[in-house]
## 1
Amino acid sequence: MALSLIRGKYVICKIRSRTVADVIEDGAVVQRDGTILAVGPYAALAQQYQPDETFGSAEHVVMPGLVNSHHHVGLTPFQLGSPDYPLELWFASRMAARSVDPYLDTLYAAFEMLESGITTVQHLHGVRIAPVSRVLEATEQILKAYDDIGMRVSYSYALRDQNRLVYEADEAFVQRLPARLAPDLAAYLRGQAIPLADHLALFTDLWERWHARERTRIQLAPANLHWCSDEALHALRDYAQTYRVGLHMHVLETPYQQEYAQRRTGTTAVQHLANLGLLGPQLTIGHGVWLTEADIELVASTGTMVCHNASSNLRLRSGVAPLNPLLACGVRVALGLDEAGINDDRDMLQEMRLVLRLHREPGMDDRVPTSAQVLQMATEYGAQTTGFADLIGILEPGKAADLVLMPWHHLAYPYLDPAVSVIDAVVHRGKVSGVETVLVAGVPVLQDGQIVRVAKAAVLEELATTLRQPLSPEEAHRQQLARDVFPHVQRFYDSWLHEQARAPFYRTSSRHYPGTS
Ligand SMILES: [Zn+2]
């Protein structure tokens, strides 16, 4: 039995409100076999327990592990040749990406995540391959990578059963292409088609074999409204109920998606999901940049969660999500790095700081996010979107021992005004270089800033070696097809948007939302 004690000058246990947090000064956490037994003053716990191992000191900050609630891949799209196009064109550019080994790719991002204090990831797997046996093969490699490195993963395979390249049926779009391109693109899109029954069987299979493991959960992911038929959405809703798992769905990422929802349903995407019975605490809306005021009220009243992907929204010109109104309505908002943050990596501390800054509207009222709110989004609320909702995100007895340790001097040396709270210090000044130790389920997975359980340098070298190989004929063919099809995708969206849809980049300033005064 492994009993350890984790000591801190400050132990951040839980955020209580916009401005109040439970922080124990000269505190400690005691854990046995991955579960927290006690949290309290160091002096008392050191007397009560005889730990096998001690982490931290009277000069450390101890806090809950961070949760990246929206993640897809390792090597970033930018690294693989997709610049930051507007989202709909970026989708088309992603066709050209090289095939990357899923095990090495997963470890690549996991290194960056653990190094920035992320202990749990919501992995939304979007690989576009068929048949389902190939997806399963890749999934096993992904889950094995997280298992080997010691990270917690809440995994789902994103379901797409229509509109694979643009916001209309594949057959209709193919017909727009010149005869020399149409058959190739039709074959490419057909090659991604997975019958709904196979999707559902994949979920059941993974759920049965992986869901009960300590650090793995399996959830569901309708990829986005345009990608899912109502039939598929019905099926996923029912599966979520039957298996009591969460769903994570990209919704209203861009104004084009807002327009698509209107054309398809005659109402908003959120109202349509409400009509299908999908809204509720089991659903997390990824992005939600183009939620209307009525949508926000519907999201709030149903307990639906939102995952805010601020960097991604900036990079792909999606807009700025209405975070302040969402928080004012009491919506639980998580944070996601999506493909990558603004430094093209998975730096959660920087993402938190971006979120803290991005929504600072002019004025003197209390409506902009506080450090405590941002930390809660990156921990407790993120946790609630994953399959570990009851287990992680706060430090108290019975919860999992997922912890991050940072030396206080990293935040406060050579000087920090004593009136600055530890929460403010972490959110304003915490950097990857200060993440010293990370424990997942009580096990050190990062120590002195170094990955413990996997040989990082060897993995990176192996990844580099696989990509030094020349393009395979399949990759070369796909890259040419991507180049040829790109202008047709561009043309498809011409005149989709009315001018006013572009205007409200910031739409949060003058509105009055329930819960604000
Ligand atoms: Zn995404």
## 2
Amino acid sequence: MTMAAEEVTGRRRGHPLLQGRRRERYTHGLHPAQMDALRAMCGALIPSLLPVVDRLHGGADDDHDGRGDQQMAGASKDDLERFYLASAAGGTIPHEVAELVTRCVWEAVVLVKIVLWILTTKVGTFALCGRLCVTSKFPYVCKFADMPVERREEVLKRWNRARWPLKITFVVIKILCHYAFYTMVNENSEKPCWKAIGYNIPELDEPRGGGTTEARPSSPRPLDAGVVETRGLNDTTLLRSLEDKGVAVTTQQDDTWSAHHHTVRCDAVIVGSGCGGGVAAAVLSAAGHKVIVVEKGDYFTAADYTSIEGPSMDRLYEKGGIFCSTNVTTALFAGTTVGGGSAVNWSASIRTPETVTREWAVEHGLPVFASPEYARAMDAVCARLAVTDGCREEGFQNKIIRRGCEALGLKADAVPRNSSEAHFCGSCHLGCPTGDKRGTDTTWLADSVSRGVVILTGCKAERVVLESCKPGRNGRRKKCVGLLATCSGDGGITKKLIRIEAKVSIAACGALMTPPLLRNSGLKNRHIGRNLHLHPVSMAWGYFPPENKLMIAGKCYEGGIITSMHRVTDRTIVETPALGPGCFASLVPWESGRDMKDRMRRYARTAHAFALVRDRGAGQVDGEGRVRYTPSKDDVHELRDGLRRTLRILVAAGATEVGTHRSDGLRLRCNGSELLSTRLLAQKLTPMVLRWWRHTYLGSGVRGCTLGRMSVRSGVPT
Ligand SMILES: Cc1cc2nc3c(=O)[nH]c(=O)nc-3n(C[C@H](O)[C@H](O)[C@H](O)COP(=O)(O)OP(=O)(O)OC[C@H]3O[C@@H](n4cnc5c(N)ncnc54)[C@H](O)[C@@H]3O)c2cc1C
């Protein structure tokens, strides 16, 4: 970024784009009457509640000792009172929710708009809410926005139990409302309710950018020698910047079609700077080729990252982190910044197991994966990323996995990471603020720019350019001669397209974005976008009260994200996620406004762990932001078994309450070991992993999809 990042000074640190400035205007287009209905929904989901004074003093917590929660959070009575009194109906939160709704799949947007519209009328409210909107005063029926908050809450509870379409409306608004409420920060990049839930932005013990020589804030940024940041550049300044980097540009001055482009020539153009694109740029440039990388995201470094969940998700993730399958059951995550997924992933750097490489070679006819070359390539990647499985100190959630496994006599393995042994950062998923995690942005791309590679950021490849040619030996009549890209996205002011002509064009935009690029280019192969494999994930949680002295110390968001794992089967593992307050609140079940606030108050001491499955079933990418995905029956079985094992591990580690993300909030109070070996536990846990349609999955690690006849896998071993 051209704007200099601030050093760690007080609260306002990092890059302005990652600090969470107020939006200047809203573009959601909802009518004021629809906004009233939405505000009323937000107010019922997160209502203003009179704090139960006894609870704040630890006397009347219906499930646990509230005093412990308060001490753990370091929150004063005032903090807790303010938290319970805060409502999502206030301020700009409903507008933020409306804005987030527009990022969902269009079917969900239309559905939500229609439901809100119906709720603006009395008849419509009666149709959707029934007798709950009937009053004793003339005209005896009121609109949703005029209903008392308790009745609105009752309506939402019913919708939560309903099926399509009210269930979907409920799920969308519930997720987005909680996400907006817990991630929106004030002008000091703070959120008053964080104190009450025991959260604060982790202070940095490790120096910013201190982990790698490449990322020291005082030195030039690792990619400065090659990066051209197109945000804010106009056509003239863009040309000048490209020429400064040694790229010759031609622009036609007549009125032919080519006058609408700046034309640039190179040996190879690569779309995407993630795991695949970054390594390809380094390898090709090392072989002496002139390479240009086109990346639609922005360039940030360790000194820029703020670890503030809302703005960081917004800038670093595809669709600002609000990306789900078209059936709204699976949340998808993909990085979109320089470094791609490697800049935000959870650092687990597991070599492709031999069983998998053999399967690719034998069953999919790709012998290269079983060859020594592939093993050598893996060695080279691990060496450059300095992958280590040492970890000096584990965080709260990983300690729990380890303790639970030990208690059950199960094996917990160390997980290799691309960061140092001392790395204790829980916010690598929002860009590692210490600079210790080695993504492509600090390694392979840094090597590339030192060899003359140019990286265009804020530059989106729209289509590859195909030209007719004489049919060759392979019978193809068209060849790819480069691509067309725009720099006029968010903040860009260039008017012309960039045409990059190259002998070789590489699409490395990840499994979700590569198929749309190929289809937009006119390619018709019916296999494009098919066989999408995700790593479906289903989560369980366990609450560990802080007052028990034998209990593991720490908070759920502290420490390396994945340092321990348990292997359930060849296809299923148990690991731990990174969940900031926003993601946590959107995922955990909502039973009522008060219950949700009680759950959030226990945020810091609620550990999550997930079962992750190497899926047999497959989904399909239909277009940009349109992904069809439903786990197959076999995968659901694996997920259930994995989830059951995850719950047992949490119980064995000493959780006093466990649950899944089943939307009705079913949970089990437990007392550690007494339940471990009994059938009772199995009986009690089983309902939590059943009734599958009520669960939400995460597809966090996109594994690959078909791009024609060959199935490609992501650059990072999965
Ligand atoms: C939150 C999260 C956690 C993860 N944790 C792990 C982990 O612990 N271990 C692990 O092995 N894997 C993990 N993964 C998965 C891993 O990061 C991905 O498999 C890997 O990044 C895929 O590499 P890629 O090169 O295919 O695509 P990406 O790394 O996603 O890179 C694609 C790049 O292309 C850019 N792009 C897309 N379309 C265009 C376009 N039209 N024009 C220009 N640029 C474009 C994107 O902005 C992006 O930067 C995680 C992923 C996520 C999202």
